[in-house]
Amino acid sequence: MRTLLFPALIVALLSSTSVVAVEPTTLGYQNNRYIEPVLVRVNAQGKVTDFIPAYPLSPELTRLLGANLNEMIHTPATTKDGKPVPTQFVINVALQSEPRSTGDYDVHFTYVSAFPIPLGRWYWSRNNFGQLALGSPNILSTYPVPTRFTRDFSTGAMFSANNSPSPSGVHVSGGHSH
């Protein structure tokens, strides 16, 4: 029985998708702002080539996030000898809103923290406990990610469909996009 169980266990492990759990932190809604973890890929020229928010955003907020990431990231990562290299990392951004004199709000994402992720195919998933984690189809990609992201949804999603801010000059008034 033992001799049959061990090969079955090996086959099950090799055919599964690896998931990297992330450690607890106080991310979510903190200091009157939402924290959004974003998996970002940057090429050797310093251009953002792809970004994947951990939590779904409205199309307007996704465009705003892309524009804000392009403003924040404009140089590539480099090796110790100064050679530019492609990189991928998780950046935690906060959604900030600032009131205007007209009663509208200016909205933008700001940098909170970041940590590197090894190159490879990574995606957001949930572990068996429902916690957000980074997964990889490569079982050998077991990089320990230093942060776990959780969000308290008891107050609802980040934005409902009727109060998503628009990135065009980003004016928000009365909870409706313009």
What would your notes on this structure say?
The protein is of the alpha+beta class and 178 residues long. The chain contains 2 helices and 12 strands, in the order αββββαββββββββ. Strands 2, 3, 4, 7 and 8 form a 5-stranded antiparallel β-sheet that branches. Strands 1-10-9 form a 3-stranded antiparallel β-sheet, with no helix packed on it. A two-stranded antiparallel ribbon has the order 5-6. The protein is flat and about 50 Å long. The chain starts with a helix and ends with a strand. 17% of the residues are buried. Residues 1-21 form the signal peptide. Keywords: Signal.
The number of distinct β-strands equals: 12
Number of domains: 1
The share of residues in helices is: 10-25%
Measured by DSSP, the beta-strand proportion falls in: 35-45%
Overall morphology: flat
End-to-end distance, in Å? 67 Å
Q: Can you summarize the main beta sheet?
A: 5 strands, antiparallel
From the helix content, strand content and strand pairing, which structural class follows? Answer: alpha+beta
Low-confidence stretches: 1-28, 140-178
- Compressed to H and E, one letter per element, the order equals HEEEEHEEEEEEEE
DSSP summary: helix tally: 2
Q: Report the mean per-residue pLDDT as an integer.
A: 68
| Radius of gyration over C-alpha positions, nearest whole angstrom | 19 Å
Keywords: Signal
Signal peptide: 1-21
